[in-house]
Amino acid sequence: ENDLLGKMPIRNKKILITAGPTYEPIDPVRFIGNHATGKMGFDIAEAAASLGATVYLVTGPTALTLKNTAVNRIDVQTAEEMYSACLHYFPEVDTAICAAAVADYRPDVVASEKIKKSDETLTLTLVKNKDILAALGAQKKAQFLIGFALETQNEIENAKLKIAKKNLDLIVLNSLRDAGAGFGTPTNKVTLIDRDGTIEPKPLQSKEAVAYEILQKVIQHYER
Ligand code: CTP
Ligand code: CA
């Protein structure tokens, strides 16, 4: 029985996870999106559930499906919908891990009819979306809060700035400079940075393995 409990180290924890891209509508048939597939967030959700956690997975549009039927999946389209769902679940969870590639901007108006082709140029005005992770950081009480950072330059420095700005406990730095890392790959190369400034570069490994590395940090946090 002890062994079983050992394999379920976060069985009494509730974890909120965000995944995927968001789609920001332009008109009834078009949107602004990005290349995120949702795989990193889904792998974290599967791993957390297998370690015994109660999981709320808030995901943008994705073709992925979950193997573990215990995961509570909440499907959303836009950053605004993801924000509402996350703020709803956050007060009752112990940990939140924001792996979604949330659109930073959305069209200021959504055309109610399909936009017809006319002039040689078309200008869209975009307005900033709310930062979900920063909102969770501002509201957090005892929650352990983990964010991701996608950087192409001054990676460590920018990631540390995000820890401070969003009140995070840990950030998972993704560098697009590393081959085999990022969008649409089964692998990822990340660097874990905690709020004390400890930097742990990880080797290139499957996203599934990266998910366990991240959850190891959650387990360590609750063991202390
Ligand atoms: N994030 C979020 N809500 C947003 C934008 C980002 O929750 N509206 C989260 C992402 O899920 C990720 C972290 O914030 O965990 C960092 O995202 P990233 O795009 O790297 O950073 P930004 O703060 O958006 O800044 P920039 O894109 O300018 O680097
Ligand atoms: Ca961003």
TrEMBL record:
Residues annotated as domain DNA/pantothenate metabolism flavoprotein C-terminal: 11-220
Co-factor binding comment: Binds 1 FMN per subunit.
One MF term in the entry's GO annotations: phosphopantothenate--cysteine ligase activity
GO biological process: coenzyme A biosynthetic process; pantothenate catabolic process
EC number(s) stated in the UniProt entry for this protein: 4.1.1.36, 6.3.2.5
Cellular component terms per the entry's GO annotation: phosphopantothenoylcysteine decarboxylase complex
Binding residues annotated for CTP, in chain numbering: D104, K114, F148, K162, K166
Positions of the UniProt region annotated as Phosphopantothenate--cysteine ligase: 15-224
Family: In the N-terminal section; belongs to the HFCD (homo-oligomeric flavin containing Cys decarboxylase) superfamily.
Protein name, UniProt field: Coenzyme A biosynthesis bifunctional protein CoaBC
Taxon lineage: Bacteria, Pseudomonadati, Bacteroidota, Flavobacteriia, Flavobacteriales
Shown part of the complete sequence: 179 to 402 of 402
